[in-house]
Amino acid sequence: MRVQFWGGVRSVTGTMHLLQVNGFQVLLDCGLYQGNRKKAFEINRNFPFDARHIDAVLLSHAHIDHSGNLPSLVKAGFRGKIYATSATRDLDALMLLDSAHIHESDVAYVNRRRRKQGKHLFEPLYTQVDAMATLNHFACIEYNQTFEPIPGLTAHFLDAGHILGSAIIVMDVNDNGQRGRIVFSGDIGRRGLPILRDPQVADRADFLIMESTYGNRLHESADEAKEALRETAQSVYDRHAKLIIPSFAVGRTQEVVYRLNQLWEEHALPPIDVFVDSPLAVNVTEVFRLHPECYDTEMLDAMLQETDRDPLGFRHLSYIRHAEKSKRLNTLTTPAIIISASGMCEAGRILHHLKNNIEDPSTIVLFVGFQAENTLGRKLLDGQDPVPIFGEQYSVKATIQRAEGYSAHADRTELLEWASRIQEKGTLKCLFLVHGEEESSFALAKALEQQGISPVEVPQRGQTFELKLES
Ligand SMILES: [Zn+2]
Ligand SMILES: [Zn+2]
After folding, report:
1. Are residues 124 and 247 in the same domain?
2. Residue 223 has pLDDT above 90, yes or no
3. pLDDT at 78 over 80
4. CA nearest neighbour of 104 among 67, 78, 130
5. How far is the CA of 307 from the centre of ligand 1 (A)?
6. Which has fewest Cβ within 10 Å: 22, 74, 250, 289?
7. Which positions ≥6 away from 179 have C-beta within 8 Å?
8. Which ligand is nearest to the CA of 213?
């Protein structure tokens, strides 16, 4: 048995690992590589293997860095099944189409210029038609249900507590009597995240492929995140101002809404209007409502309360799909909280809200998520002034804040604990650290080694490892 690491190693983008077992080939995730446009296109378009010879995909969760290149795989001739939880499938029905739409409009924009210059035109990486075709390959498997994607490999999903439907993938291999267990963590969530259950731990593993996003960082507590939200909401209400929250459509928006709802139920929130202004975020919230099997007891209890019933909505909260209603927010004269995507302010309606409010000194912009380099969100956080929005410069008069305590990933302590509970079983032969910037992966590798786990590998792109099974 062999594992080959093709993406999401020494980086957090484009997760893709290839498992060769019993003469079959299984792909763990098929994420979109994001970064420099030309390099990204090359990497995403050209698979380092023949897609027609991949027998199955096991998918950890719907985030685009894990599932976003599936349409390219199908386009390249993949014929097998994509195994995922039903919540992951339903989220991907929205996200792959949204991703395809972004590819199509990006290329259309570039091609307009190229046509004028008489240059040859580009094709999108994949289209909405490709994304729809991909959905036909999904086979839904619930948590703790055993399935056999290829002969000699049985698998089951554990709850990863990272986003709705996210899974840890446990694989038991039997290669002519030689046996072994491989566990792929996917992205590991945090304990105490609202809505979702806490991450589970596999009861043992011979080989562990584990994420290391925050291998060198600790998070603030979730209570601090809630308190920051309360204070800021009160402050804009008192000053008759606007609070703009750029937020990822999947997970973070629902988390912020859930906390606002909690504050409302606790009578800790002023009667301020709250708008979720992002069609994708609104649709994703509907998918959340369809999957109570993924909820933790706190969420289920909240739903059973006579007074609340809907933890993702309250009297002052409106979800906005239509552009017309979104535009009406521009002329709003009352204090308001506007939650909009994209989370890093790269596209979407958030840009209109920033454009309209950033020059108003009473506005607060509150960041609740990670801001990658070179994004507008990062520029604002770094104090850049003026900033470009839709090609024009705007001076930053609004107050820019960051709320700590929001993260869907385990931090360093939680990762070390999670690994140590698998280590305790005494069967671990090798741990591979993936899904982290080099600095973070190596810092965690060192800590794991000090904890007595050996060897810990931080693979490079394209590196292959032989996994020795035992009879
Ligand atoms: Zn993720
Ligand atoms: Zn990820």
Report:
1. no
2. no
3. yes
4. 130
5. 33
6. 289
7. 172, 173, 469, 470, 471
8. 2
Q: Which of 325, 61, 23, 18 is nearest to 169 (CA)?
A: 61
- 300 Rama class: left (phi>0) / alpha (psi -120 to 50) / beta: alpha
**471 falls within a domain:** no
What is the Å distance from ligand 1's center to 23 Cα? 30
Tokens 């919230």 belong to 285
Q: Which residues surround ligand 2, an ion (CB under 5 A)?
A: 65, 187
Looking at the CA of 91, name the nearest ligand. Answer: 1
Question: Is 73 strand, coil or helix?
Answer: helix
CATH number of the domain residue 102 falls in: 3.60.15.10
Is residue 183 within 8 Å of 422, Cβ to Cβ?
yes
Mean pLDDT of 437-452: 97
Q: 244: CA distance to ligand 2 center in Å?
A: 25
Query: Residue 349: which region, alpha, beta or left (left: phi > 0; alpha: psi -120 to 50)?
Result: alpha
Q: Quote the radius of gyration of the chain (alpha carbons, Å).
A: 23
Among 190-194, 381-385, 452-456, where is mean pLDDT lowest? 190-194
Give pLDDT, residue 286. 94
**320-331, pLDDT tens digit by residue?**
999 999 999 999
Give residue 154 CA to ligand 2 midpoint distance, Å.
Answer: 24
Closest of 303, 327, 321, 323 to residue 313, by C-alpha: 303
Sheet (strand 364-367) strand order: 317-320, 273-277, 336-340, 242-246, 364-367, 399-402
Query: What is the count of structural domains for the chain?
Result: 2
Q: How many residues does the chain have?
A: 471
Query: Looking at the predicted structure, is the pLDDT value of residue 348 above 80?
Result: yes
C-alpha–C-alpha distance, residues 79 and 406, integer Å: 39
Domain limit, last residue, from 346, 373, 402: 402
> Residue 405: is its pLDDT beyond 90?
no
Band (pLDDT 50/70/90 cuts) for residue 199 is very high
User: Do 462 and 433 belong together in one domain?
Assistant: yes
Residue 452: inside a domain: yes
At 99-137, the pLDDT tens digits run 999 899 889 988 999 999 999 999 999 999 999 999 999
Pairing of strands 178-184, 167-175: antiparallel
